[in-house]
Amino acid sequence: MVKRTFKGTIEYTAECREICLAEPIIFSVQHLSVERVCLESKEADIISLKFFIINEESLEKARDIAEHFLDRILNKIAFSFNAYVGIPRFSSGIIVEEIIAEDGTKSITVHPSPTTIGISTHGFFKTTPPAHRITDLLNDLPYEDDLLAHYYSQYRFVLLNTDPIAVFMAFYNILLDILGDQKGVDIFIRHHEPAVQEFPDRRYGKQTLYTKLRNDIAHAKKDRPLKQVSEEIKTILSKFKMLVRKAIEQEQHKHDKGN
Q1: Do the beta carbons of residue 94 and residue 112 sit within 8 Å?
Q2: How far, in Å, CA of 252 to CA of 236, rounded?
Q3: In angstroms, what CA-CA distances link 248 with 152, 170, 173, 251?
Q4: pTM of the predicted protein model
Q5: Considering 83, 103, 138, which residue would you say is the last residue of a domain?
Q6: Contact (Cβ atoms closer than 8 angstroms) between residue 189 and residue 208
Q7: Are 56 and 82 in contact (CB under 8 A)?
Q8: Are the C-beta atoms of residues 113 and 53 closer than 8 Å to each other?
Q9: Contact 45, 15 (CB under 8 A)
């Protein structure tokens, strides 16, 4: 009886400005055809995700499997370490077919894919997170629900933007998704930042500084040009980002308690 086996790797790279891994990190995902995944830092500002695939004959199917997990992994890295993680690019892929004939002779066929052009990068200050922390985070991926995955995705793609108004509004929309409405957002903000500056609001009596800035953008006024609002946003954006992270982490805790 002839025996055929298939093994291969599918690799993607992405720009990552804030994380430098001291050593490769191996973790698992929940799929019978994925033996393991390796995350490592490549050249400056680049991370690589390599999927070790088994029992798949075609590169196309192997890529489909890898891409099912790719963005979830990158989104989790971006959120957990507050890191800019860019759009991934297919880097290389290979499937090795081994045939063992009835008489025991072996033949090997290699099915490679073209290697793509690399990613241009810039120099950024980097931190080196503990390998065990990343491994724990990524091993949790199969157990996260779609709503958490949605928040991680939103957070990561906000970090890809550089315009302060666009970033602020996208962060505020995440809070609205989680907390329901302006009232819920302000209650959450007051709880986590008791000294937050407040302003009159016709509907709710008072509104926090963050909600006022959001409303100033949504309802532009001649005496509040967007350039002025943008400058104010720059001074509070880092604090606001931490509030958004707390809201997502709150959803994480709810999910953990439910399991």
Answers
A1: yes
A2: 25
A3: 8, 14, 12, 5
A4: 0.81
A5: 138
A6: yes
A7: no
A8: no
A9: yes
- From the list 7, 167, 9, 160, the residue with the least C-alpha distance to 71 is 160
pLDDT in the model for residue 6: 86
Amino acid of residue 223:
D
Cβ neighbours of 140 (radius 10 Å): 15
Contact 214, 232 (CB under 8 A): no
- Tokens matching residue 40: 């490592």
User: What is the token pair recorded at 83?
Assistant: 């890191």
The two structure tokens encoding residue 192: 């986590």
Report helix angle 146-159 to 164-179, nearest 10. Answer: 170
The owner of tokens 């002839």 is 2
Distances (CA, A) of 33 to 64, 80, 97, 124: 11, 27, 15, 36
Q: Measuring CA to CA, how many Å separate 209 from each of 162, 185, 214, 219, 245?
A: 21, 12, 9, 15, 18
Say which DSSP state 115 is in. Answer: P
One domain, residues 130 and 183:
no
Predicted local distance difference test score (pLDDT) of residue 124: 47
Q: Write the pLDDT tens digit of every residue in 130-163.
A: 666 677 667 666 666 788 889 999 999 999 999 9
What is the domain range of residue 199? 161-258
Residue 148 falls within a domain, yes or no? Answer: no
51 and 178, same domain (yes or no) = no
